[in-house]
Amino acid sequence: HYLCCNDYYHEWTKEEDKIIIEKVKELGSKWTKISKFLPGRTDIQIKGRWLKKLQLEKDINDNKEEVIIV
């Protein structure tokens, strides 16, 4: 894989996150197909964002469960 453009490190937007969530629901983990909806983002960037977002949500949910149990 390679860097496709100079915007490799620009911040993720809420709109991009929304598109990723919608497209994963629609297409599953077809990162290359999803990247066609996010110009300037590679399939690897999108997969990384998805996995990071999932991990963050899991951590938040785990913390909520701990608070409820205590």
Question: Which helices and strands occur, and which strands form pairs?
Answer:
Layout: H1 14-27, H2 31-35, H3 43-69
Q: In a nutshell, what does this entry contain?
A:
The protein has 70 residues and is mainly α. Helix content is 66%, strand content 0%.
What would you say this structure looks like, in words?
This protein is an all-alpha fold. It has three helices and no strands. It is globular and about 35 Å long. The protein starts with 13 loop residues before the first helix and ends with a helix. The relative contact order is 0.14.
Low-confidence stretches: none
Number of strands: 0
Largest sheet: none
What helical percentage do the residues reach?
A: 55-70%
Cα-based radius of gyration, to the nearest Å: 15 Å
- How far the N terminus sits from the C terminus, by CA atoms, comes to 46 Å
Count of separate DSSP helical elements: 3
Mean of residue pLDDT values: 80
Q: Would you tell me the structural class of the helices and strands?
A: mainly alpha
What sequence of helices (H) and strands (E) makes up the elements? HHH
Strand fraction: under 5%
